[in-house]
Amino acid sequence: MLDFIKRSRLTRQGLSCGKTRRKHLDSEFWEILRENPLVGISIFAAGFLVTTPLLGALAENLPNAAGVSPVFIAAVFLTATLHWALGFPKHLRTNGTAVLMLSALGLHLALVGAVLSYAHHRSWTPDYAVFLVPHALAPMILCMLAGRRLGFFGALYAAILGAPLVPSPSVLTFIAAALAIGFFGVFVTRKVRRRSRLLTSGVYLGIFATGMMVFFGQMPMAVAKGREALTMAAPLFCGILSVMVAGAVLPAFESLFHRTTAISWLELGDLNHPLMKRLSMEAPGTYHHSLVVANLAEAAAESISANATMCRVCSYFHDIGKLTKPEYFIENMDPENNPHDDLTARMSALVLIAHVKDGVDIAIKHSLNSAIIDVIEQHHGNSLVYYFYRRALEQKKEALKLVEEDKARQDDVPDVSEDGFRYPGPRPQFKESAIISLADAVESASRTLAKPTPNRVEQLVDDIVRNRLLDHQLDECDLTLAELNEVKASFVKTLMSMMHSRIKYPKETQEKTRDEEVRKQGRDLERERDRDRDKDRPSDHGHGHSHHGGGGSGSGSGTKTQVRGSTAA
To answer: Is 294 in contact with 311 (CB distance < 8 Å)?
Structure first.
């Protein structure tokens, strides 16, 4: 409310436009809900209170079930809570991820109970029905939404919590099959980037479940009871059905928990997005820069098994804030008209720094993914705008010199501090953001190399990464030194492939000039041959010509004489 009053007063004074820039900040309340460990414990407690009656209701439809014990479920949830707190890094064990994991497990257990109930009503043997259960449902959902580690976590506790729903003799078979099929489901979906690939994963999953059935000796028993076709088709059908259910619920889980799968990242990476079209038209230099950064970041992420698709898409949008004042950035600048010549160093730095906040504002306005907004905020960290900081120091030095010469006043000396020339931050908080930050700096600096050789490029990359480390820009992300070396090697390789030299071809004008000279020399040689030929002709040919001319002349003289004679007569 106070901010609104202040803004209104400034607007009336003509010192504000009255508009506010959108900010990517969560309230303190949501921050507590996401990070507080007591809230996480409460979430697992709520999961226990919901799962116990759910399994009890499912077991009522299964008379032969081993039985659901609240003590058993409580022990499982206590173990899961300790596993969650001690076995996962901080960036993975957020409270939102815990809710996602428990929701996927609840859906998984409900479908397990439904399949076992259907098998019971069809009088199928429990050992046979075990291989028709969608064991890979929760592991696949969690793997695609939160990574392999959470997928394996889901497979483990889905197997343990589902065991009380089968008869006691089949419990061990159920746990073994659930773990094997669940882990295999994580394996086949870890790099799913297209929906068609998801269906293929279902086929592989069904084939694996059929192999497990043969391994446990259920195929001969089913065949002996006349279920040849059903025995062969049922596990395959259930595997395909599992991925179909997973594909159907993924959009809902993505929306509810603000998660993005590799499939969705590919859809977000469409260069026909309105912002990318604006960037290509209004800031073509920034557009090309973003494409090169995307190539660098994607290759580096692949080298350390980070989310390469996320790096590519976030790199496309990381500099959209430059759309506000594109002509102030060197890649879009007119060489003959530098707008920074009319600004102080401090004002130039403010214009450059503002593109981060402008980018966040534009991204929120266009409802871009939250991870993209995070990268826009973090890709410069709180680094120093070094060029204009040095320029400000030089201007201050010149002002002090003028004061010493009594040509200026002390009040004219600008106050220069590093804090005024640093980006607002925060620093990169995760691997992908750190990779994009480094790729952005490396791409910009690589354009200053006149003759890029492997040694020069490698030295450039080393200097940039070392400076970022010394400036503590990578302190808050989970990028290790070993991974950082892989990232540097990837940058060097990608830059050298983009900056390779080509064979120098002769110009077309030179070829035309050379051809004309050859033709001219040929014409000169023909003229010389003609002259030589004329000199070598016989001499009587010339005398005859003279005699013929003389005779004509004499004849003419004789005629004139006759005319005179006759006239005289």
So the answer is: yes
Between CA 93 and CA 253 the distance in angstroms is 17
CA distances from 469 to 427, 466, 479 (A): 12, 5, 11
Neighbours of 115 (CB within 10 A): 18
Helix (H) or strand (E) holding 241: helix 228-257
What is the sign, positive or negative, of the torsion defined by CA atoms of 262, 268, 270, 275? negative
Model pTM score: 0.75
Rounded Cα–Cα distance for residues 383 and 365 (Å): 26
Q: HEC string of 77-113?
A: HHHHHHHHHHHCCCCCCCHHHHHHHHHHHHHHHHHHH
Nearest-5° Cα angle at 190, 254 to 50: 50
3-class secondary-structure state, position 497: helix
Contact (Cβ atoms closer than 8 angstroms) between residue 290 and residue 315: yes
Whether residue 426 is preceded by a cis peptide bond, meaning omega within 30 degrees of 0, is yes
Q: Under DSSP, is residue 337 helix (H, G, I), strand (E, B) or coil?
A: strand
Is the distance from CB of 458 to CB of 504 less than 8 angstroms?
Answer: no
Residues 464, 438 contacting (CB under 8 angstroms): yes
Count CA atoms closer than 13 A to 325's CA, side-chain side: 17
Phi/psi for 384 (5° steps) reads -95, 135
User: Which of 29-38, 114-123, 369-378, 504-513 has the highest mean predicted lDDT (pLDDT)?
Assistant: 369-378
In sign, the C-alpha dihedral spanning 368, 370, 375, 376 is positive
| Contact predicate 303/490, CB 8 Å | yes
3-class SS letters over 135-168: CCHHHHHHHHHHCHHHHHHHHHHHHHHHHHHCCH
Please identify which residue in the block is written with the tokens 């002769």.
506
* In contact, 445 and 460? CB cutoff 8 Å: yes
Tokens of 110: 């409900």
d(CA 546, CA 21) in angstroms, rounded, equals 107
Per-residue pLDDT tens for 251-274?
A: 899 888 888 888 888 888 889 999
Q: Determine whether 460 is exposed, middle or buried from the number of CB atoms within 10 Å of its CB (0-12, 13-18, 19+).
A: buried
Tokens of 103: 């929701």
CA distances from 556 to 144, 528, 564 (A): 119, 40, 13
**b/e string for 230-241 if b means 16 or more Cβ within 10 A?**
bbeebbbebbbb
User: H or E stretch including 387?
Assistant: helix 386-404
The per-residue pLDDT for range 91-124, each reduced to its tens digit, is: 788 888 999 999 999 999 999 999 988 888 887 7
